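Example: Glutaredoxin.
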Amino acid sequence: METLDKIKQQIAENPVLLFMKGSPKFPSCGFSAQASQALIACGEQFAFVDILQHPDIRAELPKYANWPTFPQLWVEGELIGGCDIILEMFQRGELQPIIKETAAKTAKPDTKADAE
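Written out as structure tokens, the predicted fold is:
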């Protein structure tokens, strides 16, 4: 599968998806740690892709998203943004209802999005 097709499939199959460095339990950078903690604090399950394990996704996703940095939060196929936007939305109380509404539509376990 081509990298771009893989990215599109991951976004389509995971209503709440965080492309990050590391994992929510073991983040590999401060920005990814902050973003995943904000999502965890929302109290709902979300999927993630460790871009350090997938250099092809790390190279292609910024072009596809037109967003140069990681982490990247996608909700229902739409790019929400990176760490600063995620934290700002969380602090304003705007992120929690978005995540809760999306989770209510489709319950999915906290899992690594299939990047193979």
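The two ends are 9 Å apart (CA to CA).
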